[in-house]
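Deliverable D2.4 — example input (structure tokens):
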């Protein structure tokens, strides 16, 4: 039974990542349409799994311990600053304008709607991804398999999930570095969840990372 549960979680995670990759690379719907698809895949399917199998302790995942947020807050602020500093260091050598044109052409994100998109990405989308990749693909899976496998699988799935949406943004070497960085970030997020046994610490760091990325987006779109 334990092996069946493990196989089911791994299958759901991989299938969802493949579907979202196809949506990003082939279908290319408007951003908010894509978000609805993602909510069904990343939220509804794990909840349905839990209703059937009852392995996912939803209440525990969202059980807040304020003392556990001090280190994640410091990590989040540091990540925010590193992203902004990295942008200013690389911007003289790399043309980031292709990111905004890619966002506009592929998913309809433009200067006119970027404020709403940025708010959604920073707060709601980051929580959705933490629930799926850390709450479901890590915290639940680590009880059914080795902790090492859960660490690696969740962080690798998190990194590979982002590939299709970043194609065309950067030169290939930067794309590879971004994927490596996402995997390392996933490992750090897993560690924070492992220590706290909930998703709030990783969500905080993820949210601040998105704040930094979206601030760059505001600059690239000429909003600030």
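Example output (designed residues):
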């Amino acid at each position: 039974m334990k092996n069946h549960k493990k196989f089911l979680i791994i299958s759901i995670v991989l299938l969802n990542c493949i579907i979202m990759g196809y949506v990003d690379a082939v279908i290319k719907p408007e951003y908010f349409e894509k978000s609805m698809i993602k909510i069904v895949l990343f939220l509804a399917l794990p909840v349905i799994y839990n209703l059937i199998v009852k392995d996912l302790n939803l209440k525990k995942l969202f059980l807040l311990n304020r003392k556990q947020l001090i280190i994640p807050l410091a990590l989040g602020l540091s990540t925010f600053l590193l992203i902004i500093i990295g942008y200013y260091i690389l911007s003289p050598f790399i043309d980031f304008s292709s990111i905004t044109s890619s966002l506009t052409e592929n998913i309809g994100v433009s200067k006119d709607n970027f404020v709403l998109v940025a708010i959604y990405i920073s707060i709601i989308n980051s929580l959705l991804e933490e629930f799926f990749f850390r709450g479901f693909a890590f915290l639940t899976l680590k009880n059914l398999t080795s902790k090492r496998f859960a660490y690696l699988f969740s962080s690798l799935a998190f990194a590979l999930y982002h590939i299709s949406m970043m194609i065309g943004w950067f030169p290939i070497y930067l794309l590879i570095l971004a994927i490596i960085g996402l995997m390392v970030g996933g490992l750090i997020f897993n560690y924070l969840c492992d220590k706290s046994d909930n998703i709030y610490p990783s969500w905080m760091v993820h949210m601040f990372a998105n704040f930094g990325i979206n601030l760059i987006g505001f600059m690239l779109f000429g909003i600030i």
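DSSP finds ten helices and no strands in the chain.
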